[in-house]
Amino acid sequence: MGGGAVVLAGAAGTIGVQLAFRLAAEGIEQRLVVSDEFRAPRLPGGARLPEAEVVVLGPDPADDDMDIAVDDADTLVIADIAARDPDPLDLLAAHGFRRVVHLSQIGASAQGISAHAQRHWRVEEAVRASGAAWTVLRASILYGTLVHAVHDDVLRAPAGDGRAAAVSPADVADAATAVLLDERVHAHDGATYRITGPEALTGADVARTLSAATGRILRYEPMTAREAYATPVPWVHDLDDWISCCAAVDAGVFEDVDHTVARLAGRPARSLASWLDDYPGELAILRGSGPAR
Known about the structure:
Ergot_Alk_Oxidoreductase, NAD(P)-bd_dom, NAD(P)H-binding protein, 7-stranded parallel β-sheet, 3-stranded mixed β-sheet, NAD(P)-bd_dom_sf
């Protein structure tokens, strides 16, 4: 994958953390770009990942800090574009990367229903125009988002009866790792992949799966966008993002199932039930929030 370092923008995000660990396990030199030192991925006990340099960049980074992040780097991976993270386009403009891999969102377009998808489209356009070899992986909604939306044993969302082929963050990270480490030169240049789970789930389907995993009766309760704006959602950083994403679910943006994980990672994507089995700690947010049945 080239001899220079990988600059991992959004390294503190859900996918970024998993990707950082995978690249570290392969001995890949990384620059982990984060907005805060304490958010950088670390080994148990707090040790830094091997072959990984943490670079802290604020919203208006100094030229010297930017130079440290990109010096002698070969590949830029854009794993997250959260508002609290440095703008990845600043990194893209600061250095002539040979290769760029962008973890985008399904539905990305200038007219995307989801506000986050519109922002990803802006990044996609810049990546394609950068002159670097590029690959875009458009991921579906992550399973963890579904779990976090449950409060008092009720999954409330302005998503109607829409279906979403939600996906495990580990599967997104595995697919991205496969692209980055593929020994076939240029095998993924100019490719745009859709990364989904193996089944399209309604809110009621999610509630049934979580009921089986927790031993409690959970239910799905659709709501209107107006009700969602009036309802406090503690875990949501941007209410417009959350509500517009749910609107995209209702419109069917995320309902198509794709088998890209199997093609890239060499194994089928995890179902929601199998993800909960593999990562039981993800249910911690639900434990103790309701009576057992």
